Amino acid sequence: MTGLRALIDHPEYELVGLHAWADHKIGLDAGDIAGLAPTGIIATDDTSALLALGADCLAYFGNYASREAECVADVIPFLEAGTNVVTPALMDLIAPQHGRPEFVGPIAAACERGGASAFCGGTDPGFMTIGHLFGLLSGAGRIDSVHVAEICDLNGYGSYDQVSAWGFNHPMDYRAPMFYGDVGTGWHESTVRGIADYLGIELDEITSTVENACVDQDYDAAWGRGLAGTIAAVRWTVTGISGGSPVIYYKKVERTHPDAAPDWEHALNGAQAGYQIVVNGDPSFETAIALSLYDGCAITALHPINAINAVCAAEPGILGQLDLPHFYSKAIRKNAAVLTG
What we know:
11 helices; globular; DAP_DH_C; single chain; Dihydrodipicolinate Reductase, domain 2; 2,4-diaminopentanoate dehydrogenase C-terminal domain-containing protein; alpha/beta; 4-stranded parallel β-sheet
């Protein structure tokens, strides 16, 4: 919903059409769906009608995990019609040179046929793992290693299917699809390879380790009842090794109970979620960002939305994280207070 509200309220964009998958949303005004004033834009499931609008850009928010082929098929007609696409969903486009060719190839071909561009943004992979990291590296000197960690307490997350894919509430020896299947490893390993490309280094190999932790009591969560002795915390570390030494560390530290794995990384100031980026070298420095679950999800939608103007102005093709000029929100509150010191 954050993405729709942002598009409606954005000072430089005009919403001209809205696709809805849910039957109960079809026929509703976009403003009603977003909790805003009516817009006159009515949600539809008629793709042909949306294509006929000839919009400059499609902001696509379909669920990508385990339905990659369907998502690719959704956006191809728009690209072929010359409509640019921004999305947090098409994860294989984060570092397209390392994405799975069965998904990257058709999108690249559609971009060429329609003279359109496609860009996948989001929080992680995306803004935090490449955009924010390389913003920090503009002030770096010698780089010995970089560390990027996502930290999240998923106790308040409402989707059991999502937390189950991470292994939560399963036996401690469960091999979660996120860490052992193509869905997760594909886009996370490609992110590590993309970082290496931007750093100008060759990777000898990429290693992956998964650690699980539990708590000794049952507990309540937004997604259901967590059971004692089952997975309540996961730390997944993907490491890029170059010249025999680890250079890029990419971690996911996820919990569904705050007492699980107390010695692992925690979000800044006890926040629900956050990111830590560490650069070891000369100089060495560390940064941490604190987020609520809502904030993290909001950034996932807003990062590609803020890229729309830059994507529309770019040359046709798939655009990686550093292929665009710097972009940012311009949705400044007109009555915002001015702070002076």
